[in-house]
Every structure is written in C-alpha cells, then in structure tokens.
Amino acid sequence: MKRIAVYCGASKGNDPSYMSEAYQLGKTMAEKGYELIFGAGSVGIMGAIQDGVLDHGGSAIGVMPNMLNEKEITSEKLTELILVDSMHERKNKMAELADAFVMAPGGAGSLEEFFEMYSWSQIGIHQKPIAVFNINGFFDPLQSLLSHMIEEGFIDAKYDTLAPLCDTTEALFETIKHYKPLGVRTYD
C-alpha cells in the first residue's frame, strides 16, 4: 500500500484542533511513506493535510476538475496536479490512484465522495481499506446513523466495521494496515 486518498473539507472548521490534527495526519502519512491523493485544494483541512505531507518530505497528488480549478484555490505546491473534466472523473481518478480511503472532517462533498467508496466496497468494485479520521468526535453522529441503518436492515450487519471511526492518527494507520475485506453484499 502506497497511496491514501483523503476526502475532507476546504474549510477550517470552528475549532483550531481540526487544522492541527489534519496537519498531523499529513505529517504521519509522509513519515510512514504514504503518498496523499486528494482534491488539490490549498485551504482548509485539505491544505493542512497537504502541508503536513509536503513539509515532511512526502508526496501530494491533487486531482482537480477544470471547472473548479477556475473557481477554487488550487494548490501550487503539489507534487503532481491532475486536471480532469468533471467531478465524476475526479472521483474515478482518485479511486484508481488510491490504495486506501480516509474521510476527515468536511461537508457534503466529502461525504458524497467517501460514501461512493463505501458503497463500491459493498458491491465489490473495490476491497481497499476505508477509515474515518474522527477528529473531536466529528463523525460520532454519522456512526449513529450507520448503526441505525444496520439496525433497520438497510445495511448488512457485517458492514458495521467497514469504515471504522479512528480518534487518533495511530489508530487510523493501524486500521488501514490491518484491514480485512468484508466481502460483497448479499441480497436476501
């Protein structure tokens, strides 16, 4: 495993610890020899992770749709920038390049990108590790929703650990390292 895609926000959040923990995630990625695959933004959580990676000798590969490249603040520090024509191409390229998927705090876009990888795992498109970096318990409500969906029979119970919440970078990398595929969804 060499590359980790991180889905996260282009905003900082209200608590400074989001940015400091995101930077620490990038730093740890670089120290462990992982390359960052991400949305190529230079601000918010995206920028903090990128800076943590690059400040510690790592590699950051950004994937940016042309339409957003004209509107957003695309990083100028990237190891490599890949421009694509659409959001669909961005997600496909990130999935193709990555060996694992992590979600850090962000908004609707982060959820959408991450849950595509979550559902793709369920239907067998990939069997790569998935984890959630749960800074400050940010994703605790999401875990409650997933547990509710399992209890109500809309997600197979075997996927209870498909995207574990990790409160520290150490837990995150241990989760990725020891990932075991859960198999494809069955239909009753």
From TrEMBL:
Native source species: Staphylococcus shinii
Protein name: Cytokinin riboside 5'-monophosphate phosphoribohydrolase
Alphabetic keyword roster: Cytokinin biosynthesis, Hydrolase
GO MF annotations, alphabetized: hydrolase activity, hydrolyzing N-glycosyl compounds
EC number, as in UniProt: 3.2.2.n1
One cellular-component annotation, GO: cytosol
Family matches, as Pfam families: Lysine_decarbox (PF03641)
Tree of life domain: Bacteria
UniProt family annotation: Belongs to the LOG family.
